[in-house]
Amino acid sequence: MNTPAVSRKHLDNSKERHRSSGTVMLNSRIVVEKEKFVSTGILTYVEGDILEIEMSEYKAFELGDAVKLTIYSPGGFYPFESTVVAKDQGVVMVLIPPQHQNRFAEKREHPRVQVNQKGALVSYRNEDGSWQVPEGQIPLTVKNISLSGVGFIIEEPVELDRDALVQLHLDLGFAMHCRAEIIRTEPVEFGCYYGAHFDELAADKANSLRAFILKKQVETHFAQKREE
Questions:
Q1: Same structural domain for residues 96 and 138?
Q2: What molecular function does GO assign, one term (predicted)?
Q3: In terms of domains, do 73 and 124 share one?
Q4: pTM over 0.90
Q5: CA gap 111, 121 in Å, rounded
Q6: 151: enclosing H helix or E strand
Q7: 184-47-211 Cα angle (round to 5)
Q8: Any idea what the CATH number is for the domain that residue 139 is in?
């Protein structure tokens, strides 16, 4: 039976004293409301900026819907506003506001997504502090990426030591130029794998990268669920 429509005014009567600074756990019950409609579900997935709610009335919600969530967990209840960013059979996904992200026990601070994107090494800094610019950009393949760093493979014979600074161009569906510090090197069958930490990622680049990671998270998560 469908949940009856209710007004937002009726649902906004939560009292501050009932809120808690405890931790939200998976399988917590969630009330999800939008204008003139309210439903309930279960928290089934938390990663990075998103959480997944399993619910029978998922078809009532559309991408971009503004919603108010109230999560009921053993430590208390947690109301906050959000936006629907994805949905699939039996579930919807919403954004976690930054000020609420530390409440989720299962959340990783910077989720890393597996990708297969192209890019190039533009330059790297020598031990004497000077920048070496190769003759022509050196191609690389991005294997994983997060808001804090990137993992990539270079097949050409170029030696980048740990702590080396590099200038990269990444093709993520948008052009991303960035500087990073090498923190890991590992020989692989075809070339060398490098792990690097972003250095001073500008706000506009961080926002574009966050959107890219969010899209990949959703695609990967739903694909894995279909395979189960």
A1: no
A2: cyclic-di-GMP binding
A3: no
A4: no
A5: 24
A6: strand 149-154
A7: 80
A8: 2.40.10.220
